[in-house]
Amino acid sequence: MADGLKIGVDYYPEHWDKSLWKNDVKLMKEAGVNIVRMAEFAWSRLEPAEGEYSFGWLDEIIYLFAEAGIEVFLCTPTSTPPQWLFAKYPEIIQVDKNQNRIPIGIRGHRCLNSPVYRRLSEEIITKMVERYKDNKCVTGYQIDNELEANHCFCPVCEEKFRNWIIGKYGTTDELNKAYGNNVWSGEFSSFSQVKPPYGGHQQWLNPSHTLDYSRFASDSTIDYVKFQCGLIKSIDSHALVTTNCWLCENMPDFYKLFEKLDFVSYDNYPALKLPEDKETIYSHSFHLDLMRGIKKKNFWIMEQLSRATGGWMPMSQTTRPGMVKGYAMQAVAHGADAVLHFRWRSAVSGAEMFWHGIIDHSNVPGRRFEEFKQLCADIAKYSNIAGSQVKNRVALLYSSEHEYALKLQPQTEGMHYFGQLKLLHDAFASIGLGVDIISEKEDLSKYKIIAAPTLFITNNEVAGNLYKAARNGATVIITNRSGVKDEYNKCIMQQLPTLYSELAGVYVTEYDSIGSRKLKLDIINEEWHGKYNRQDNPYPYCTQWCDLLECTSAVSLATYGEDFYKGTAAVTHNYYGEGNVYYIGTVMDRQSYISLAKVIADKTGIQYIDGLPSGIEITYRYGTDGRKMWKFIFNNTTSKKEIFIDGKNMEIGAFGMEIVEIEINMSKEVME
Ligand code: GAL
Known about the structure:
Elements: E1 6-10, H1 21-31, E2 35-38, H2 43-46, H3 56-68, E3 71-75, H4 83-88, H5 115-132, E4 138-142, H6 155-169, H7 172-179, H8 207-235, E5 240-242, E6 244-245, H9 254-257, E7 265-268, H10 283-295, E8 299-304, H11 323-333, E9 336-341, H12 367-381, E10 394-398, H13 400-408, H14 417-430, E11 435-439, E12 449-452, H15 460-471, E13 475-479, H16 501-504, E14 506-523, H17 526-531, E15 541-551, E16 555-560, E17 569-576, E18 579-584, E19 586-588, H18 590-604, E20 616-622, E21 628-635, E22 641-645, E23 648-652, E24 657-663, H19 668-671
Parallel strand pairs: 1-2, 1-9, 2-3, 3-4, 4-5, 6-7, 7-8, 8-9, 10-11, 10-12, 12-13, 13-18
Antiparallel strand pairs: 14-15, 14-16, 15-19, 16-17, 17-18, 20-21, 21-24, 22-23
Bound molecules: beta-D-galactopyranose.
Beta-D-galactopyranose binds next to loops.
C-alpha cells in the first residue's frame, strides 16, 4: 500500500444498498482516494446473534477496495454493542452517578470494565483480526471509536475503584491523610467504606476523592485500549493499531492511552463559522499541535470535517469554498500523514443524517466533491512529505491532571484550563512560531521557550525539570494558578506559587478572582509597551484573575491599573541560572500576549515574524534525510490576505495553502 501521504474517507457499506458499492469505489478511485476506514459501528451486522458471525459482506467490499488498490483500515466494532447483547447482558450498561442504568440508545453506554463486555469484545475482535490478518489490503485497526474516560458507577467499577485505592494508598490511615478526611468526619476505618463519588450532591464531595475517580476512569480506558491492542497484535503482529481521540468532556490521559499504540489519530472538526466562532483563530492548529505532541511523532486524522455539522443541535453553516481542502492541508502542515474525511456520503437514516459527508443525500457529487478531488490531487503531488517531521523551539506543557482538577473546582468565571493554554499558543502562532504541545513530564532540553501555564497540581518531577531548563538557559513562562495543590488535590500551605516562587522570583500576597470584569493593565516595560499594537486593541486590560505579586528577585513588567491593588505587579521577569523566567499573574487581552511573546522571543534570541496578518499560519516540516524542508503558509480566514515573506509579496485566498519546498543541508544531529 501507498507509502506517501494518505487521503481518504470513512465509509459505511452497511448503511447502503449493495448496488451502490461498486460505483462508490469507482468514484473514490477516480477522485484519488487511497485509504478508507470502515466498521466501527457494524457489530450487529458482523455478529447478528451471539456466536453467529457474518463477515461475507465485509469480505466483498474489502475485495472491491483491494481491486481498486485502495487501502482498508478496519475498526473493532465495539463502540456499538448490538441490541441482543444489551438485552441478554444488561450488566454491561454503564450506571450513572444516581445509580441508574443509562438508557441504552444505540451507541456507547457500555462499561469498559465489564468482564462480560470484554469477553464479547474479545470474541468479535478475534474473529475479525484472524479473518483479515493475511489480507494485504487491510493494514490496521482503529480500536473502538472516540473512547472517553467515562465515569461509570456500576458494581464492577465500584469494586475496581476500591482495589485501585487500596493499591495506591495501602492503609486507610494513608488514605485519610492524603485526602484530609478529618474534615467533615470523612475518615474511613475500613476500605469497604470506600465508594466511587456518586450521589446527587457533587458539590459536597471531597475534591481529593473526585480527582482520584477521574484518574481511575482514565486508567480504566487506558486498560481497555491495552487489552484490545494486545489482542490484535497477538493475532497479527504486523497490523498498525491506533484509536481515534477527540477533545471530549472526560479525556483520558492521552500520553498513557497511546503508549502501546503505533500512532495517534484525531477527529478534526474545525470551526465552520469564522471569525465569529468563540474559539480564537489558531484554535484548530492548537488541537493539531496537541495531537502531534502525544507521541512526538506524526499522526493521522481519522475523521475530517466535510460539511455542515448537525443532528442533535441546529445545523452549522456549510463548509465555505476552500475549507475542505484548506483544513486538510493545515492538518498535514502540523504533522498529519493521513487525512480521512467523515464521511463519504451523508447518512439518510439514523441520528446523524444531518452531519454531512463529502457527497450529499442525493448522491449527486457537487461542489465539495470537486474540491475534495483537488485535495486528493494536491496530496498526490506532495506525497513525499509523508514521514517528514515538525520541529519547534517553543514547547507548551499539558497534563490531564490540571484539566480534571480545574473542571472539578473552576477557579473563576470564564477560566478554563484549555483556554489558558490556548492564549499562549495563539500568541506564538501569531508571530509565526510553531509550538509543540507536550506532556509536562517530557524532556525539555530541546526547547528554548517553555510555556508552562496553570501548573495547578504540583509535581516535583515537573518542577525539577523547569528549574533545570531555566538554569541551563531556557526561557520559562509560568502563570497564575500554579503551585496551588499537592498531588492529592489539597491546597499547599505556603505562599503561592509555592514550588515555583524561587524560579519566578515572586510571591503572591493575595489574589482576586474577577471573572468577566476587565481591569486596566499598565505595561511599564518600555520594550513591551513599544510592541503593543493599539490598532488591534486600544488599551491593555486584564480579566478573570489577578495575582497581587511581590517581587523578590523579579522585576515588574506590568502592573494593575485599577482597584485597591493599582500599581501592584501583575507580570514579571526574573533571571534564573542562565535563563529567563516570566510570571503572568493575570489573564490579559490577546494583544498583550502577542506583544509579550515578541519580547520573550527577542530576549531568548529567537527570530519571529513581525506583522504577520492575523490568521496566517506558518509551519515547517523537515525531511528525515536533512536535505529538504517544506514551509507551509496557511490562511486560516474567510478573506484574502497579502503577506510579505522571504522578500516577496504573496497573496493567499481564503483557506489557501502555499507550500514552499526548500533544499537544505542539515546535519544528522540537528535532525535528531
Ligand atoms: C465523531 C464520531 C463519529 C460521528 C461524528 C459526527 O465524533 O467519531 O462517529 O459521530 O463525530 O458526529
